[in-house]
Specification:
Blueprint (H helix, E strand, L loop, with lengths): L7 E3 L4 H9 L4 E3 L6 E5 L3 H11 L8 E3 L6 H4 L5 H10 L4 E6 L6 H4 L4 E5 L4 H9 L4 E2 L14 H8 L5 E3 L11 E6 L2 E6 L5 H8 L4 E3 L1 E2 L2 E2 L21 E6 H10 L5 E6 L14 E4 L2 H17 L4 E6 L5 H12 L2
Parallel strand pairs: 1-8, 2-8, 4-6, 5-9, 10-11, 14-17, 15-16, 15-17
Antiparallel strand pairs: 2-3, 3-7, 4-7, 5-6, 9-10, 12-13
The structure holds threonylcarbamoyladenylate and magnesium ion.
The site of threonylcarbamoyladenylate has 26 residues, from β5 and β6.
Length: 335
């Protein structure tokens, strides 16, 4: 938690200063390719406690630890089995998080006492530059207040965290817009704990039959031996103030015709003329692709709240590729 309540805004060229703040036990918000993160030195339990305070996050929801590269793995993990190395080789740096047995240097508060630590090597240039300046790993959840949509641009990160952190690095808008894919290895199974831009199709291809990919249902893996769900999946997530109705494409046209009042916003995939709605209507958000929809989702939810919308009708994308992650977030946002 910031001592003075003052938050410094830093430019990407000032990541050296941001690293120094982290080194001294401070909190720094920084951009990544997925969402903005709220970072602290992962070896500093007191600094990490500040993350939970700033986010008002329950203490039993563990943090993802960010690394500059695979060379830092021995600092944070006791071992990385060959399967982990295959996946890291293919998907790091990028929107991919893997849970490995933690080293003793990782304090309990980071993993909420669990033996596994979640590790991610981001690809965003600003994040990489910041992490390269740190000789320690950086614990960072999404930089939102607990339960709210993650920030995917500087303005949203500032709105959530100004006055609660020591610094915010003003970076570009996040390219992906949804949180990273999280996997956990369990013998010859790979459990997808959270869907993201590293899709099941990509994971299957990388595994090439070396391991079995387990079904993830709203973040809860369904393994033959019933492993516990990812800790954070118990909590409300990604919710805007407005009521969100997630509808299948086939029902979108009907839902849109039924809710044509001023307080309603529509999120739809563009297919020719979307359901006969005038595109000049400010409460209609259309997306050219599923990736575009994913990138803009949280920004749209925030825009709807700022406009005072009472209802958001959001079309569910097809259940494949990045569409799976987007459906997951929409269904959670719908509560
Ligand atoms: O894209 C991302 O992953 C972003 C950026 C900032 O890297 N981070 C992010 O962190 O989304 P957060 O804290 O908002 O979500 C992390 C999720 C939570 O649901 C948490 O419960 C789960 O990861 N998690 C973290 N550590 C874990 C562990 N050791 N075992 C199982 N689940 C874990
Ligand atoms: Mg989060």
């Amino acid at each position: 938690m910031t001592r003075s309540g003052t938050t410094v805004i830093l430019s990407p060229s000032e990541v050296g200063r941001a690293a120094e703040i982290l080194r001294c036990g401070g909190l720094v918000v920084f951009p990544t390719e997925t969402v903005y993160g709220l970072g602290a030195n992962a070896f500093d339990a007191t600094a990490c406690a500040g993350i939970f305070a700033a986010k008002q996050r329950p203490a039993d929801n563990p943090l993802i630890v960010h690394l500059a590269g695979v060379s830092q793995l021995p600092l944070v993990a006791r071992q990385a089995v060959p399967l982990a190395r295959v996946l890291l080789q293919r998907f790091a740096p990028g929107p991919f998080t893997i849970i490995l047995p933690r080293s003793q240097a990782i304090p309990d508060i980071v993993t909420a006492g669990l033996d596994g630590v979640a590790l991610r090597i981001p690809s965003n240039q600003v994040a990489r530059a910041l992490l390269a300046h740190c000789e320690f790993p950086v614990a960072a959840p999404s930089a939102n207040r607990s339960g709210r949509p993650s920030p995917t641009d500087f303005e949203a990160a500032f709105a959530h965290m100004n006055g609660r952190v020591d610094a915010i690095v003003r970076g570009p808008d996040c390219e992906i817009g949804l949180e990273s894919t999280i996997v956990r290895l369990n013998g010859s199974y790979v459990e997808v704990l959270r869907e993201g831009a590293v899709t099941r199709e990509m994971l299957s291809e990388a595994l090439q039959g070396r391991a079995t990919l387990l079904e993830a249902h709203q973040g809860t893996a369904v393994a033959p031996d019933q492993p516990p769900p990812a800790p954070g999946t118990r909590y409300r997530h990604y919710q805007p103030h407005a009521r969100l109705l997630a509808v299948e494409a086939a029902e979108a046209a009907t839902a849109l015709q039924q809710h044509r009042d001023a307080g309603t916003a529509f999120l739809v995939l563009r297919r020719g003329e979307p359901y006969g709605l005038p595109l000049t209507d400010t409460a209609v958000f259309t997306f050219d692709s599923v990736e575009h929809y994913a990138r803009e989702l949280y920004r749209c939810l925030r825009a709807c709240d700022q406009r005072g919308c009472t209802t958001i009708i959001a079309e569910l994308p097809p259940n494949d590729g990045v569409g799976r992650a987007l459906r997951d977030r929409l269904l959670r946002a719908a509560g």
